[in-house]
Specification:
alpha+beta; Transferase(Phosphotransferase), domain 1; three-stranded antiparallel β-sheet; globular; binds adenosine-5'-diphosphate; binds magnesium ion
């Protein structure tokens, strides 16, 4: 729930009321809590890729897509994924490729904490719903590398290894 107080029409203060998430943990802590269950880790990564895609398709993206802004909780056989830092959530009629890739780059570091390097490119393909045909996969990976180089040198190394396979 969100509300604001105004004086003579001018906004004085804005408030947002959030429910406290019980049993939810930030992304890597949630993923690592399963110990060396690598199938579970891959499954979480897949679910997250799908959820991020859904967020973008809904016309939303984050200005700060880091794992402390994502909380996960088990719910029966499924997991719930919450984007908590609403301050950084932005709306766009259509989320551009650059913004989508920037969100992916930011998440890559956290994902690297629970899936091996070779699997990290898989996150991109899961996000896209499969590996794109022909030159498209290569083009996207190159763009990710370029964006990653600006923010996170590790990604460049990881993606180069994947590209050379
Ligand atoms: N609704 C919530 N329930 C439980 N913990 C939360 C909730 N919202 C945020 N947190 C915890 O607080 C941390 C900081 O919250 P966040 O909204 O990201 O604020 P900040 O602007 O300081 O980054 C999160 O990383 C998460 O661990
Ligand atoms: Mg935050």
């Amino acid at each position: 729930m969100a509300f604001e107080t105004r004086t003579l029409g001018a906004v004085r203060a804005s408030y947002i009321v959030c429910e406290s998430l019980r049993d939810a943990r930030i992304l890597s802590r949630f993923a690592l809590a399963g110990g060396r269950n690598f199938r579970r880790r891959k499954w979480i990564s897949r679910r997250l890729a799908r959820e991020l895609r859904r967020l973008h398709e809904a016309g939303l993206y984050s200005g700060d897509m880091q794992e402390t802004n994502l909380m996960l909780a088990a719910e029966g056989d499924e997991i719930m994924i919450y984007f908590v830092d609403l301050e950084d959530l932005r709306r766009a009629t259509r989320v551009s490729e650059g913004r989508r890739l920037r969100n992916l780059v930011h998440l890559d570091r956290s994902i690297g904490r629970f899936v091996p390097r070779s699997q990290r490119l898989r996150f991109l393909y899961n996000y896209l719903g499969g590996k794109p045909a022909g030159d498209e996969a290569r083009r996207l990976v190159r763009r990710l590398i370029a964006l990653g180089a600006r923010t996170e040198p590790q990604i460049v190394r990881a993606s180069r290894i994947a590209l050379s396979h």
